[in-house]
Amino acid sequence: MNKTELIAEVAKKCAMSKKDAEKAVNATFDTIAETLCQGDKVQLVGFGGFETKAREARMGRNPKTKEPIEIPATTVPVFKPGKALKDQISK
């Protein structure tokens, strides 16, 4: 499912226009992203949580030339599914 299909499904389930559903979905994604940028977590009970993790700098190899390259430190978003979501998927 891509974003357009998600918006269409939300519009159908909530009996709203696709335009309103798009605003709601975009606002949700923007709010999650802004919260993660501030370094905070987003917990959705029964679904899961979003947080950020710091990756340290490390050495890697260019697969083409086999030269060692330094991969810089970075912060990445991480999703941890909640128990209810895990149980629903495993059925």
Account of the 3D structure:
With 91 residues, the chain is an alpha+beta fold. The protein is 44% helix and 30% strand. It is built from three helices and five strands; from the N terminus they run ααβββββα. The strands form two sheets. It has a three-stranded antiparallel beta sheet. Strand 3 (58-61) and strand 4 (68-71) form a beta hairpin. The longest helix has 20 residues, at 18-37. The mean pLDDT is 95.
The tally of helices reads 3
SS content category = alpha+beta
Oligomer: single chain
SS strand fraction: 25-35%
Envelope shape: elongated
The major sheet is characterized as: 3 strands, antiparallel
Total strands: 5
Helix content: 40-55%
Rg estimate, integer Å: 19 Å
How far apart, in Å, are the first and last alpha carbons?
20 Å
Strand order of the largest sheet: 1-2-5
What are the low-pLDDT stretches, counting only 5+ consecutive residues below 50?
none
Q: Mean of the pLDDT scores? A: 95
Order of helices and strands: HHEEEEEH
Q: What are the main properties of this structure?
A:
alpha+beta; two-stranded antiparallel sheet; three-stranded antiparallel sheet; 91 residues; single chain
